[in-house]
Fold:
Amino acid sequence: MEKKIERFFLKNHIDSSEIKYIKREDGKTCIYLIDGRIINTYTPLKTIVDELPIDQFLSINKGIVAATSRIVNIKDDLYTMRDGSIFKGRARMPRLLKYEQEKKFNSYRKSQSLEIDAQCSIFEHCPLPFALIGIEYEHDGHELDYIVHYANPSCLKLFNKKEEEVINQSLYLFNIEKKLLILMADIALNGGHRISNLFFPDTHEVLCYQPEDGFCALLMLS
Structure:
């Protein structure tokens, strides 16, 4: 990394893995971070982007570059980010460039999916109920949906459900309380972990944690 950019990153405590997207606004380059900070600089966007891992960022439009790990959907030239932001892609992007961008995004999603599957396999024979919920954006990125990506046999037995009745289904089908959905979304999108008794008041505690961006894992502890 160029010394000037390296010093700038160190001074502002910026790590490339924590960048959501970078935009040109009012003559400045604005770096949006996952912790909510926005770092402004007069350094040209291209100068900064040239020092970032090429396989981890997409140039969406003139003046907008986004991290592939923070994109949740690409459809009709609209890029939806995990924080709900939506960016319009180039109206006349060359077909080959568009293909390469979507290929890069899909490659990241496939890699993430494989990592998630590997983590879930650990709980296949676990006696404790375990489930993995993925957060997705619907309706142009303004509403969240909660998709069940995995539930181990102990979890299915607890709720007396068959795998086909649960996997890839929305939690909205199961009348989950709003406060629980808010908790899961907070963990999935912002990270961290929490032990909660909201799921089974007075009977069971559940560990909620983020195994990967956009996912909330639930493990019953007692």
Q: What stands out?
A: The radius of gyration is 20 Å.
